[in-house]
């Protein structure tokens, strides 16, 4: 059973516009959420994280929003650039077992020039 | 700068061969992880280790074993490779000291079993 769900396998946006990647979760014990970016034939790289005590975290063009009541988070990329084209993974830590990350299946983002 | 290295970027093996994948990190991290990534299946945890000589099964440990004799090195072993183990294998490490801290990944090994 997927505890972290990324319901859109793919997303296509125009360069310069906003990209919004969504993630839903089922476990209310999750206390940290992370976003990773992965290019083909490379390892994932960490982008941004958010603690469950916050509702927003921003780092340059990347902002993550957390809605705990809806068990939903989203990653906003503004403005989108062609180099942002990659697979984006949402992941979460369970407060009771913070050694393992629980991963979503990923969303493939294509930013078109 | 943080560094996780994996012994090979690409590997081709035959069915039944014993395969060793090596991972080394230079960050003095306590935790190390082995994942495999397959299209449409995301990252699936095979094994992880939270200390030297300590290991825990992940979600898909069958057909794999691991070894952690030194803090910086975590090996994944395929005792008898099979074609369904063709995949991208990713190693990661993480410090225990930071709650919610990120895992750092190596570049991956693309393993093909013929």
Overview of the molecule:
The complex is a heterodimer of chains A (113) and B (114). Chain A has 113 residues and is mainly beta. Chain A has strands spanning 4-5, 10-14, 19-25, 30-38, 45-51, 56-59, 62-67, 72-77, 86-94, 97-103, 107-112. In chain A, the strands form two sheets. In chain A, strands 2, 4, 5, 9, 10 and 11 form a six-stranded mixed β-sheet that branches. In chain A, strands 1-3-8-7-6 form a five-stranded antiparallel β-sheet, with no helix packed on it. In chain A, a hairpin with a 6-residue loop joins strand 4 and strand 5. With 114 residues, chain B is mainly β. In chain B, 0% of the residues lie in helices and 56% in strands. Chain B is built from no helices and eleven strands. Chain B has strands spanning 4-6, 10-13, 19-25, 31-38, 42-51, 54-57, 64-70, 73-78, 87-94, 104-105, 109-113. In chain B, the strands form two sheets. In chain B, strands 2, 4, 5, 6, 9, 10 and 11 form a seven-stranded mixed β-sheet that branches. Chain B has a four-stranded antiparallel β-sheet with strand order 1-3-8-7, with no helix packed on it. In chain B, a hairpin with a 2-residue loop joins strand 7 and strand 8 (73-78). Chains A and B meet through strand 4, strand 5 and strand 10 of A and strand 5, strand 9 and strand 10 of B.
């Amino acid at each position: 059973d997927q505890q972290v769900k990324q319901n859109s396998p793919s997303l296509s946006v125009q360069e310069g516009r906003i990209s919004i990647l969504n993630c839903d979760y089922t476990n209310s014990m999750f206390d940290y959420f992370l976003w990773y970016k992965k290019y083909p034939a490379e390892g994932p790289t960490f982008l941004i994280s958010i603690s469950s005590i916050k509702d927003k975290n921003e780092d340059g063009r990347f902002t993550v929003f957390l809605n705990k009541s809806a068990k939903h988070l989203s990653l906003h990329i503004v403005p989108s650039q062609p180099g942002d084209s990659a697979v984006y993974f949402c992941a979460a830590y369970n407060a009771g077992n913070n050694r393992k990350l629980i991963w979503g299946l990923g969303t493939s983002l294509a930013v078109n020039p | 700068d943080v560094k996780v290295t994996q012994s090979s970027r690409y590997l081709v093996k035959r069915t039944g061969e014993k395969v060793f994948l090596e991972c080394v990190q230079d960050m003095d991290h306590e935790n190390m992880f082995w994942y495999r990534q397959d299209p449409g299946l995301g990252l699936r945890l095979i094994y992880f280790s939270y200390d030297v000589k300590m290991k825990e099964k992940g979600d898909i440990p069958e057909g794999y074993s691991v070894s952690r004799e030194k803090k910086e090195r975590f090996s994944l072993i395929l005792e008898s490779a099979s074609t369904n183990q063709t995949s991208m294998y990713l190693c990661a490490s993480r410090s225990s000291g930071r709650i919610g801290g990120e895992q750092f990944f190596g570049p991956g090994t693309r393993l093909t079993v013929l």
